[in-house]
Amino acid sequence: MRKVFSCARELGLRKWADPWGLAGIFSGETASWSVPYHPGT
Hints:
Helix content: 25-40%
Distance between the termini: 35 Å
């Protein structure tokens, strides 16, 4: 992430870091794993 932020800074882009959903701890809802685990359904 440090490199990504550094490159963004060099390009003059604004950077945002949002821990929403990080490790399933900070999110209000959980990820739906149904599609990755059962793609044919």
